Amino acid sequence: MATIPAAVHALIAGASTGRHLQLIHAHLITSGRLASLGPTLLRRLISLHPHHHLAAAHRLLLSIPSPPLDLFNLLLPPLASSPDPAVAAGLYVHLRRGGLSPDAHTLPHVLKALARLAPGCLPLVACTHAEAVKTGLARAVVYVPNALMAAYSACGHFGHAMQVFDEMLRRTVVSWNTALTTCADNGRHDRCARMFADMVEAGSVPDQTTFVVMLTTAAELGNLALGKWAHGQVLARRLDMTLQLGTAAVNMYAKCGEVSYASRLFERMAARNVWTWSVMIMGYSQHGMAQAALELFNRMKDASVAPNYVTFLGLLCGCSHAGLVTEGRKFFHEMQHVYGIKPMMTHYSAMVDVLGRNGHLQEAFDFVVDMPVEADSVVWRTLLSACQLHSSKDCIGIVDKVQKRLLKLEPRRSGNHVMVANIYSDIGLWDKAAMMRRVMREGGLKKMAGESCVEVGGRIQRFISGDESCPGLDGVYRVLHELNINMRKWEPVDKILLVDSDL
């Protein structure tokens, strides 16, 4: 005849619902057998529905006297991926206070939770790093430093993340991909491109994730040559064109100005998600093709794909450049009241641009004042830029109010003062313009030098106004001088002759 614990073991193993396990849990508490059978119950609860009973599993674990480390390791992965990763971080603190030392199965999931809680958990990431170094896991197990890099990157500590990478004795493709992603996420796109060359030289074979990062880097740099090369490598290596990879390629071509190629690639994709649709809509909008963006949005809705915040940012951008004020108002309303998307500061700035760029300055000002959140400097500067675009004496009242707001937010930003001085000059208020420039001089504020970039031979060349240290500057000036002479010699040609000669 089976003993009572054996019978309970059988009940636990045969339980098919969370309700059954709750009844068994209650029995174990009342019978005093929780200490011996709690671990078995917890394992069954997690195996039944890992994400459905996390709260119950968490309470059960904390109620077990002196639970072993493997039970913590069992619960940490689903908690780290749950909507509330703070519970995983708290569980880690609990196990450390209980005298347990983490192992290679503990730290990666703890660091994953901390990365999702960033940037406010840097001290705990540093403590976890110290624990990994002390136990030797930082060097012995490759996925521990990989997780450390991701956590430091999420906290905005690029230097610490790269230090972890530099100290690694062994690197897998995941290690390289994490380092590349860290560079990209922290705006170090030039370094990302150089690191990829180091990766290939080290003999590591790039995968789809590698090329997603490289295509994203090329898009952010506006480096079409790098993007084409990365896309070519995907084809040459016969890598599967995953949804993420295809979306990254569409985004790269659109951002680098090859909108027609991005569109052809988009149309050839077998599967598309909301990000694929959104980057294509954004690509059309950023290149003045607002009507194409709006038509694609209608196709997106017909395909039953729900838009996200990027979709509406692209639509508002397109409406701004095309002067579609009514459509812009409609999209901003739809975003909140139809799709339930809470506007971000970038959406508010885009809506101010829709109104301001098209001359609705007072409405734009009222829109900013009525925002449910405090407007940041970008929103106010967008409105000030609109005032400069439509400068007249009628907008002086708005200019003065916007200037006061910006002075509080950015007292040392010279560009705001320059913009206001230019507005005063445009409408003939010379005394006010002179006063603004005097304020700049007395405050020690200097106008930022103009800067432009151009890609030549696959390299990005930077030009800064007033900088004469650029190699080959004499040759550049010589060409500009010759162009200037030729332009002065140019005479207008009858438009009819131009049409007839197919010029």
From TrEMBL:
GO terms for biological process: RNA modification. Gene3D superfamilies: Tetratricopeptide repeat domain. PPR repeats lie at residues 172-206, 273-307. GO terms for molecular function: RNA binding. It comes from the Eukaryota. The keyword Transit peptide applies. Keywords: Repeat, Transit peptide. Pfam families: E_motif, PPR, PPR_2. The keyword Transferase does not apply. This is Pentacotripeptide-repeat region of PRORP domain-containing protein.
